[in-house]
Amino acid sequence: MKFYYHNIYASLIDIKLGNIMPEMFKSLNQIFETAPQNTLFVHVETGQPQTLDDWYSDIASIKLLDSVPKEVHQHFNRAKNTMLYSWFCYEMMPVAEQYCFCVLEIAFKLLLGFPSSEIHNMNNMIQEAVSKGSITDEQGNSCHLVGCQNLSHSKVSHNRAL
Fold this sequence. Notes:
By secondary structure, the chain is mainly alpha-helical. Helices cover 40% and strands 4% of the residues. It has one domain. It has helices at 8-17, 52-60, 70-85, 93-112, 122-131; strands at 4-6, 41-43. Strands 1-2 form a two-stranded antiparallel ribbon. The radius of gyration is 18 Å and the shape is globular. The model is unreliable at 146-162 (pLDDT under 50).
């Protein structure tokens, strides 16, 4: 996965100059225009702007194992498509991120045998999956998670099958 940084200086200039527009419904001829916020991310190594090809290849590189249930694959691909389309509508990014957590919840409920109608705490599901040995590292060793709140802040390699 390539690493990008947000050109905060450019953002501050745009905000100061009033160039950031409030969220608006796009007109038909604007649908496939890159969201301006996405143009502020550049390659760490080269300083070149991130492209749609970069965005697509990074998202496409995130894969599930074939052994993962079909239902999870379907939701996972929906989350990936939502993330892909956030290239054109930056406001879709939190929607895509939230859906990723929904996919994770679906996967844990199937893995742990919980009825989908029951409400379970994500942190508890993660801890139970770890204690059962269902979550392991690449070498098959049991993982030790501090808690779900650390999940969003961890550094995860997306270039391998999950």
